[in-house]
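Deliverable D4.2, example record:
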Amino acid sequence: MFDGLDALVLARIQFAFTVSFHFIFPAFSIGLASFLAVLEGLWLKTGKQLYLDLFKYWLKIFAIAFAMGVVSGIVMSYQFGTNWSVFSDVAGPVIGPLMAYEVLTAFFLEAGFLGVMLFGMERVGKKLHFAATLMVAVGTFISAFWILSVNSWMQTPTGYEIGANGQFLPGDSWWTIVFNPSFPYRLVHTVLAAYLTTAFVVGGVGAWHLLKDSANAHARKMFSMAMWMAALVVPVQIFAGDMHGLNTLEHQPQKVMAMEGHFESHPNGAPLILFGIPDSAEKRVKYAIEIPKASSLILKHDLNAPLAGLDTIPDDEEPPVGIVFWSFRIMVGLGFLMLGVGVWSLLARWRGKLYQWPWLHRAALVMGPSGFVAVIAGWITTEVGRQPYVVYNLLRTADAASPLDAPAVATSLLAFVLVYFTVFGAGVWYILHLMRKSPHTGEYGVKRGDKGPIRTAGITPGPTQDPSDQSRRDLSGSKHEPEDRP
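Output generated by the structure prediction step:
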């Protein structure tokens, strides 16, 4: 039944599907780990129970999101070996060590301290537990560092040599590979996006509970902290995105051409196309709504600066313009909506109505999942805009795929779709179930099992005894009779 399908297209769909599912969990856990560290730090500094309650409330959600992120990431290595074996072979000498560094420096750090963070509140000192929380937060950032370095090298490859067998080999310095030209911009832009994703989730949950009870102290604190993040960080993110775009124009001009919808070159200033329908067959944007020369102003800071179009690029080098054009606008549009909510919250705070404006709370609730949509749209812009290459200008996507038949790829794709929607759908439902409940004083946090670990070396725990009985046991384990017994 799958013989008429293209194996390459199916492999790309499968990778896009699994990576999109995976991406939303780290995008949430990176920001949430730092938020937890801030909450615990404020609790230690002020001693206020409210911060500890919020810490335990969000710790349960973090544990689930972190687990789903780890599980969904395992599939990536599977696909590299099955669907993209040529890419693994050719780029492995460069990509492999960077991925190994991610495991050694980040994943082990997170895994080592995660247990203390989840279950150690009553077993270690406050300062040591806070240190464990900080290490988990730092570990999530280090993980993003290495993963984004790998992705950025595929976008702007530097520091490599071509071996006799056609493999990409590291050159004289690994620093040139790690800190490739697009990496600093992509790192800042993506990490800020993760923080904003978490901020709007927290703000949405706080808004939900404020709509039900505007006097809820826990909801007030959540909403206030999230709105400060939105008001202060969104402008920084917009600036970082602009810098990232200028870097992309320098190193990947056809990606920017697709983002802007510039099928033709503009020697005397290019318009900013706000909306329209790109038509790659006719090489134009139909029904375009545009601002004259505004694109040159944004990209070159000069109204009359010339901008090259896709007419300077061979047809087989062009990325899919329609997808890149609209994914970019979704990302940017959501960014400005986030800015609007942040400015609105500042006005409400200034008027002393931050907790009494229900329309602001409704807007924050609607914008709760906006960060996830924005990061997926940004990822699509980045990855589809790089096409037709998997390693930019060096290795085409069509040449990187494994020699598989369409039925084999389609079968695994269907399996992934079924399993992902079942497993991760249940996980997301449970997270939403936890969010629906309001934080309360004495929040219990992550529960441990009552029976403790399973012993497998022939030693089994005895029955629980009353402490008062223990003093009555002799060395043989039998009880003494009470002293006043005749």
